[in-house]
Fold:
Amino acid sequence: MISIRQRKGIKTTEVPDDYAAQEANVKLESKLPSEGCTSRRLWKLLSFMVGGTVALCIGLLTSVYLATLHENDLWFSNIKEVEREISFRTECGLYYSYYKQMLQAPTLMQGFHGLIYDNKTESMRTINLLQRMNIYQEVFLSILYRVLPIQKYLEPVYFYIYTLFGLQAIYVTALYITSWLLSGTWLSGLLAAFWYVTNRIDTTRVEFTIPLRENWALPFFAIQIAAITYFLRPNLQPLSERLTLLAIFVSTFLFSLTWQFNQFMMLMQALVLFTLDSLDMLPAAKATWLYGIQMTGLLLVCILQFFNSMILGSLLISFNLSVLIARKLQKNLKTGSFLNRLGKLLLHLFAVLCLTLFLNNIIKKILNLKSDEHIFKFLKAKFGFGATRDFDANLYLCEEAFGLLPFNTFGRLSDTLLFYAYIFVLSITVMAALAVAFHNLSDSANQQSMGQVGKCTIILKPETAYNLIHTILFGFLALSTMRMKYLWTSHMCVFASFGLCSPEIWELLLKSIRLYNPKRICIMRYSVPILILLYLCYKFWPGMMDELSELREFYDPDTVELMNWINANTPRKAVFAGSMQLLAGVKLCTGRTLTNHPHYEDNSLRERTKAVYQIYAKRSPEDVYALLRSFGADYVILEDSICYERRHQRGCRLRDLLDIANGHMMDGPGENDPDLKLAGHPRFCEEIKRNLPPYTAYFTRVFQNKTFHVYKLSRNK
Structure:
């Protein structure tokens, strides 16, 4: 962390682990009898045992708390199986369906075969689900459930959701440990865990999106950050370093295996390493190890996913290779005067950027990769590089989850004092980082390694510098895309709690206002966190108890009626078309074949989805029928909530996105682009309900309730 030291006229060879006051204490302690040293070790051991016990307890309590909220919100233990499955909305239901599919398979080998040669997720196509999706966790859980003697005591759905809530215990424990490692006291870990729970709305959504990929991945990501924090400490023993590298590799691999967006999150991490390495805030050898682990973990996942081209064409692989190549080419990067060094740094940055884009384009052309192009179209439109009429990009732009972080988020974070504490700690560490970076660039002629500090009076420990840049980059990501806030807010708890319990932070602050005293540091680093903990208990404990006592029940009779009707009145091999979100539930609850689904990371699937969604556009019945039959659809489900949507403003309703993509003018009052034209046909989802001959010739209504309309397609056309 940050520490203050006296100026020295001679070079030093190592960065001291502790600040100046602690060095004086060490000299005094060396004169004490051996009994004092023994008692100190016993105290450290006792503190470690107490802190570890608290970490485990707080993790388990958080897990139980979230599981109880889920039960109370849905009355999950009392509702029917079909209602439980419907509660897994959108893509959550799709992922859970593969767990169910593996359990229903007569043997494990048949279950694997069904996933590798799947022809029910996308009609008229056979796809490898293990290659396309990150569902190895469902496979692993289904095997465990088959092997363990728990079938008589625990239903499959409970084994699944309890595993996810158990991972939350690991998640909170990892956050706790990271804060403890940074500050040196487990009190900061306790404060981080309390902040995580009291800011639950902004730190997790596991209780209502249980099977979501991020709920599997983020606990492993937190373990990885904790392991990296420990790995970046100086003077680690060789055995400790090897074990830590193993922990980093395993957690990186599991994180990559469980979430399709792993490459983008690790790219942010790689940018953190690149920034710190360029500014001499990180040992170059350790940065190289971490680059290598990222690539190795991702390539191993690529192999397990049958050489998924999206992984091979990821920016992370190209960036890490470019950094290592550019470093070899620019051997004297970290020498010279300030201006010389700055020029070399800018040249290095330019070389890495150009090489990354070159390698990435070459790989994508060789692999003919288009799976992730919708993400770049979305980013291009989001950050103002030209308006777009691309359906896929606009579909993301119009979703609240992919919009800017709402301002009221900061109000909620401020109510728990988290945001204030975070800004306080961030301000001090940023100023310290700027001072260290300026010194490193200015004195690079006299500084050949991380161990040499020269005349710099401020020291920023590598593990602190890593977490600082990490929280800044992920903060920018969260501000730009609300869905990614869960990566930032959880780390915000860690960073704020560490700063309030850090002796170096308080020392720097007190010295800057000329109130420095070792006793004051001790008082501040313990009293402030304890006061905040008392405040959180006083203000939020009654609300949490009320929340736990509030009982609700799942209620969605229209969807339940639809699923029951499909099960009772349609052939097992029937193919259904409709919205992505609804069809995921159709597959889970009925096992019927789909035309499209919510896992959007495939170019052909995106084109298929846009074609199926013409049921909500202004198209003729002949066109819609031809499109649906081209995908083998037997039934189409129309939803009034989409056809007459009012949730989004004009221009962001699904029917508007389709009209714009088709070159048609939008409905309702408001402006249209001058080149948009009037459609030659009425809106299909509205006109079909009038049962006019042009529609009844192709579609026959077979089911209807307040929400859904199911039409059977004629087979003789």
Q: What stands out?
A: Strands lie at 3-4, 458-459, 575-577, 593-594, 635-639, 699-704, 708-713. The CA atoms of residues 523 and 603 lie 59 Å apart. The mean pLDDT is 89. Residues 162-232+261-445+458-546 form one domain.
